[in-house]
Amino acid sequence: MNPEISGVTQIAGVIGDPVSQSLSPAIWNAGFSQAQMDWRFLAFPVVAGQVASALAGVRALKIAGVSITMPHKSDAALACDELDDTASALSSVNLVRLVGTKLLGTSTDGSGFLSALTDQGIDPASSRVVVFGAGAAARAITHALGSLGADVVVVARNEEKSKKVANLAPGAEVEKINALDQAVMTADVLVNATPLGMGESGTSVPVANEALAQLKLVFDTVYHPAQTPLIQQAKSLGVATTNGLGMLVHQAACSFTLLTGVAAPIAAMRSAVGQ
Predict the structure, then answer these.
(1) Is there a contact between 108 and 73 (Cβ–Cβ < 8 Å)?
(2) What is the pTM of this model?
(3) What is the domain class of 121-239 according to CATH?
(4) What is the CATH T-level fold of the domain 10-108+249-271, as seen in this structure?
(5) 164 in active site
(6) Which residues 6+ apart lie within 8 Å of 72 measured at CB?
(7) Catalytic residue, candidates 73, 161, 216, 235
(8) With contact defined as beta carbons under 8 Å apart, do 3 and 37 qualify?
């Protein structure tokens, strides 16, 4: 990567609220550096309700594209000119590219999750997976699992939202929150697709030890802290665990290739965040 910013340097970034803690600039800029590309990736704080204006700025300034993080994924989808099939099914995007004068939205969260799951030696097609949550992450993960024929069970506090998530995977089941332990008892993998455990909250997914103990893997999409209460609980029982950092890197790598047309140097991107 050229150390000097010039008049032809391409700009990309991430928009979110908050966004100052985002690891995306480190991941993407490591990729640009390894690929010797004259690009820079920046973090842009955008408050709720201002996504349409921010994306209008992307168009006006001819920014190559932006990653989208919380809480903007649904609003960003509404502001795009076109959505690919996955983003349309999810009504959510995590990448918006400027192609000509059009804003094109896509979602690489699901493919990033599947790659991270495969890294852990899990074959989704032959696995029973409990997805805990009903937000954007749960939707992307459930849709991706369904595309490979996984046996999916969705559990969340809001049963109506759970049903909408389950509709994204053929044959997916819905269980009430008070049946979480029973659902986990018959599963191979538990995925926490909520913010529970993020930061210093100390909160965790309410699952019993005897249910966790028989799992092949606990996958927590939270990556800060790296050792969430759920991961600590599972590790104490000898269960394999992974946090959301692998998913973050893999979805960034997918987005990198879509945006630049260059194969993502994923080893460098992983190294940038110690993954």
Answers:
(1) no
(2) 0.94
(3) alpha beta
(4) Rossmann fold (3.40.50)
(5) no
(6) 15, 16, 17, 46, 48, 51
(7) 73
(8) no
